[in-house]
# Entry
Amino acid sequence: MLLYDLVNARRAHFSPNSWRVRMALLHKGIPFEVKDVLFTDIPSLGSGGDKLTIPTIGHEGQLITDSWAIVQHLDAAFPDTQRLLTPASAPVLKFFQYWAQTGLHGPIARLVLKDLHERLDPADQAYFRASREKSYKTTLEELQAGREDRLDAFRRGLQPMRLALGHHAYLSGEQPGYADYLAFGAFMWARTSSPFELLAEDDPVHAWRERCLDLYDGAGRREPVAI
Ligand SMILES: N[C@@H](CCC(=O)N[C@@H](CS)C(=O)NCC(=O)O)C(=O)O
# Structure
């Protein structure tokens, strides 16, 4: 099992979508190796057929791309491990994945993307700036400017997580599950890319993030943080 994962200049794994899969592999106890890649390496991965994104896994001679497809594959290929998606939970988790994309990734990008760019391997910086400025239709500097004024709104947007965490230690209940990994990936993205603190220390979401950082021998906590 090989996980192709993005690294920055400090060799920190920062891809939010990869963190979902990394936590899924750890949750299932599936041994894996990591192949570090840069954005500019991605086009040369695979045989040039389907366009790959990160995360991609290599398993039994097959390359599988897209975090959702990878987790589906892991559940099917390792039936003796704890399932992450069941027929009953998958639609709700898919909804939560869309919420993580819009409610977490969207605002976090506007809080940390310029910092992320500064911490990339120099070989990736020009590509990253050009592609993100094209998609956001503004400069990275403009995108992140005034972030202090947007922090309260971001924190208010976490209220559904906060309320859910009032009932259980994790979003998935008393044990962590894929909902936690979907959200945790976004926080790992920020943590490895920017020193800007997203959460107040007395926020239950902060306590949840701390619990997630400690999972699986502190896999998240061991990753180099942005300085
Ligand atoms: N839906 C995909 C999204 C994957 C994705 O967009 N990955 C980013 C890195 S986090 C990527 O590979 N980007 C390539 C690029 O920007 O050139 C998933 O969840 O795996």
Summary: The CA atoms of residues 103 and 157 lie 7 Å apart. The mean pLDDT is 97. The chain has two domains: 2-77, 90-218. The longest helix spans residues 90-119.
